[in-house]
Design brief:
Layout (H helix, E strand, L loop, with lengths): L4 E4 L7 E5 L10 H7 L4 E5 L17 H16 L4 E6 L1 H12 L4 E7 L18 H8 L4 H4 L3 H8 L11 H12 L4 H6 L15 E7 L7 H4 L10 E5 L6 H4 L1 H14 L9 H10 L4 E2 L1
Helix pairs in contact: 1-11, 2-3, 4-7, 11-12
C-alpha cells in the first residue's frame, strides 16, 4: 500500500528523517517540531494506513511489523531513500523499533517518544474505556471547531494526554481531534497490537533513545514501560511534567534529544544546526531522568 507522505526540507543534502505518529493520530501530530527538524533533516512525515491522508484497505495487515514494512516500501518508492533516521510516537515508536530490528542496516537512529509495545503482558482484547477519546471525538465532530475554544472541552479531551493541556495550542487540539474523528484505521491498527508486544532484537549498531513522560496515562510506567523489552544498549529518558505526546509538552527538549541521538549515530551529525542545538541545551530547564 502506498502511504501518504509529506517532505519538508531546506537543504536536499541533509540526512533523511522519517516521522511516524501514533494510533488515531496523523502526521499533523509533529507540527510543533517540524519546522526546527527541517533545518537539520529532510523530514518525511508519514500517515499510517487509514490515518490522516492515507487510504485504508482491508487487505493491509495492520500489525506493527507489517506497518514497518509498508513504510520502508513507501519511502523507497516515493523518494528512492533506503537509509534514514526515524522518530515515532506511541504506536509509531513501536513501528520504529520494529524497523530497526528488521532492517538495521537501513535505520541510522531511532528516537521513540513514548513507544507502545513495551508491556510484559499483551492485551487480549479491546477495552471500551481505552476508546474514550475516539468516541468523544466522533460524537462531537460537528462542534469541534467551536467547542475546542472552550477550556472545559479541551480539558475533557486532553487532560489525560497532557499535564500541560492548558498550554496546548488550539491548532494542536484541533488537528488531533480531526485526526481521531476521521481515522478509519483506528480499530484495525488497535487490533494489530492485540496479543503482541515488541520483543525483537535491535543490534547495538543502531543508536536508540527511548523517552517517556512521567505523567503518561496512556502507557503508564507500571505496566507499559518495561525496560527489559527495550534494546539493551538504548538511552532511556524520563521527562518531568510530560504526558503521552512529548513533542507537544516539551518540543524544544524533544528536538534536542532527536539531534543528540542522530549525532551519536555517526550519520548526519555534521549537518546539525549548532545554534539550535546550543540554544536548547542552554534554555530548557525541564529535568531529564536517566
Amino acid at each position: 500500500m502506498k502511504l501518504s507522505t509529506v517532505l519538508s526540507e531546506v537543504d536536499a543534502t541533509h540526512p533523511p528523517l522519517v516521522l511516524i505518529h501514533g494510533l488515531g493520530s496523523a502526521a499533523t501530530a509533529f507540527k510543533s517540531i517540524l519546522a526546527e527538524l527541517s533545518k537539520n533533516f529532510r523530514v518525511i512525515n508519514v500517515d499510517l494506513p487509514g490515518h490522516g491522508q492515507s487510504p485504508y484497505s482491508k487487505n493491509q495487515a495492520m500489525d506493527p511489523v507489517s506497518l514497518a514494512a509498508a513504510i520502508f516500501e513507501t519511502i523507497k518508492s516515493e523518494y528512492g531513500i533506503e537509509k534514514f533516521h526515524v522518530v515515532g510516537n506511541s504506536l509509531g515508536g513501536w513501528i520504529a523499533l520494529e524497523m530497526a530490528a528488521s532492517k538495521p542496516e537501513q535505520i541510522l537512529s531511532v528516537t521513540g517518544l513514548a513507544p507502545a509495545g513495551l508491556w510484559l503482558v499483551p492485551a487480549t482484547g479491546r477495552l471500551p474505556s481505552e476508546a474514550r477519546s475516539y468516541y468523544f471525538a466522533k460524537t462531537l465532530k460537528p462542534f469541534i471547531r467551536v467547542g475546542l475554544k472552550s477550556k472545559q472541552m479541551r480539558k475533557i479531551g486532553f487532560a489525560r494526554v497532557s499535564p500541560k493541556w492548558r498550554e496546548l495550542s488550539y491548532e494542536t487540539c484541533f488537528d488531533a481531534s480531526i485526526a481521531m474523528t476521521n481515522c478509519r484505521g483506528y480499530f484495525p491498527a488497535w487490533d494489530g497490537m492485540i496479543g503482541r508486544r515488541f520483543d525483537a532484537k535491535v543490534p547495538d549498531s543502531v543508536q536508540v533513545t527511548i523517552l517517556f513522560g512521567d505523567s503518561d496515562n496512556t502507557l503508564p510506567a507500571n505496566v507499559s514501560q518495561e525496560r527489559s523489552l527495550a534494546p539493551s544498549h538504548c538511552t532511556w529518558l524520563t521527562i518531568e511534567n510530560c504526558g503521552h505526546a512529548p513533542m507537544w509538552d516539551h518540543p524544544d527538549l524533544v528536538l534536542k534529544v532527536v539531534l543528540e541521538t542522530s549525532a551519536k549515530s555517526g550519520n548526519g551529525s555534521e549537518y546539525l544546526d549548532s545554534a539550535i542545538f546550543m540554544r536548547n541545551q542552554g534554555t530548557d530547564k525541564t529535568r531529564l531522568k536517566r
